[in-house]
Structure to design on (389 residues):
């Protein structure tokens, strides 16, 4: 029996909090939750795929409801199937969504498509009766590795947060099994950021490493001033110093910062990733790439990005995606990425791991749940189920 997409639903949900990075606050942050409802039945239940977009970009209800969901519902159902006719073909679904879209200008559109694409892959893996990470490994002829490195992102600016609160937050991550933590910089004067960094380094000692994230705030002069300050400390990485599309700034910074840098969370296509690699002087032996499929046209596009990286001599193990969602955990376990971000205290219930999964020595082990595994996270699944009801 062939499979059809019978509905694509979207609801925009708040994921607001009083936190602030160097660029934005999250008091009005939202996410799109999407359900792709199929007519396939597995274990006596209708298969529904779910997706949502990562923090930092807002929900995309308008684009999803006005353009991308209608294209899927209007497509000839047979044109969305794989060669066997028994499952959806995510690339065909992607092509249908992107029909009549010009190239370039990878703005909010890439978030809308990435969110639906997550739900499509969830459905495809559920119809296949496998965890997505195992399905991906099979498709790429690889061995899956369910053990995935994760780091704890936080260290935001927020009202009334003094150094002892910041230290307490980081201690809490170490207590939960993390050995890399991340904090924000660039939202305070450099002398104050230095004090914050020193306080955290004192707290974590030899138990963990610290990454810092400027969220694209700096011009070249400030990025270099920070590089000179930061290189005095043994940091895990210096993230997104300048504007995400200023590849010349990124390239110039390499002369002032020999230790690892990271960027890419705000590059939304394989073409932009290619330009970063071509012109940003990123170093494949130490730097990190943070492209996030949920913001950048989804896993169909992420596979094209990985192919671009391969052509340019980059291993997938240099990728640690932004966003802290289970979709990237599956990609990491299935395709050999270097790990995934996580926000232990933020953006719930969307981020994190299935219930019962614990961080040990900075790693989690993926349970064998069909699809992306959302059904294993009860607080998240409750919201998803309400959308598909
Ligand atoms: O604060 C944000 O927008 C999130 C972010 O950059 C990250 O997790 O790296
Ligand atoms: Mg970041």
């Amino acid at each position: 029996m062939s499979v059809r997409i019978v509905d694509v639903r979207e609801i925009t949900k708040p994921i607001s909090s009083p936190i602030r990075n160097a660029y934005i606050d999250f008091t009005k942050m939202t996410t799109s939750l999407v359900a792709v409802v199929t007519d396939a039945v597995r274990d006596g239940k209708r298969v529904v795929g779910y997706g949502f977009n990562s923090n930092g970009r807002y929900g995309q209800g308008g684009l999803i409801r006005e353009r991308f969901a209608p294209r899927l519902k209007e497509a000839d159902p047979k044109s969305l199937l794989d060669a066997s006719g028994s499952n959806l073909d995510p690339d065909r679904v992607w092509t249908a969504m992107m029909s009549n879209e010009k190239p370039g200008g990878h703005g909010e559109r890439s978030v809308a498509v990435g969110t639906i694409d997550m739900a499509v892959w969830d459905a495809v893996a559920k119809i296949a009766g496998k965890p997505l990470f195992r399905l991906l490994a099979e498709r790429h002829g690889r061995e899956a590795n369910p053990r995935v490195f994760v780091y704890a992102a936080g260290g935001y600016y927020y009202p009334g947060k003094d150094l002892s609160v910041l230290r307490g937050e980081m201690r809490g991550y170490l207590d939960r099994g993390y050995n890399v933590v991340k904090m924000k910089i660039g939202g305070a004067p450099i002398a104050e950021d230095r004090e914050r960094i020193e306080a955290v380094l004192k707290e974590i000692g030899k138990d963990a490493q610290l990454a810092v994230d400027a969220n694209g705030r700096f011009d070249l002069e400030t990025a270099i001033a920070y590089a000179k300050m930061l290189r005095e400390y043994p940091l895990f990485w210096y993230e997104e110093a300048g504007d995400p599309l200023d590849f010349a700034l990124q390239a110039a910074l390499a002369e002032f910062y020999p230790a690892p840098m990271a960027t890419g969370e705000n590059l939304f296509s394989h073409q932009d990733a290619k330009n970063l690699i071509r012109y940003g002087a990123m170093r494949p032996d130490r730097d990190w790439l943070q492209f996030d499929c949920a913001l950048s046209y989804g896993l169909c596009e992420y596979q094209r990005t990985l192919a671009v990286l391969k052509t340019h001599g980059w291993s997938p193990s240099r990728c640690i995606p932004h966003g802290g969602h289970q979709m990237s955990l599956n990609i990491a376990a299935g395709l050999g990425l270097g790990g995934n971000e996580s926000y232990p205290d933020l953006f719930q219930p969307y981020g994190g791991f299935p219930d019962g999964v614990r961080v040990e020595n900075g790693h989690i082990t993926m349970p064998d749940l069909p699809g992306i595994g959302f059904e294993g996270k009860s607080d998240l699944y409750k919201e998803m189920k309400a959308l598909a009801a």
Q: What stands out?
A: The chain has two domains: 5-129, 139-387. The first strand starts at residue 5 and ends at 14.
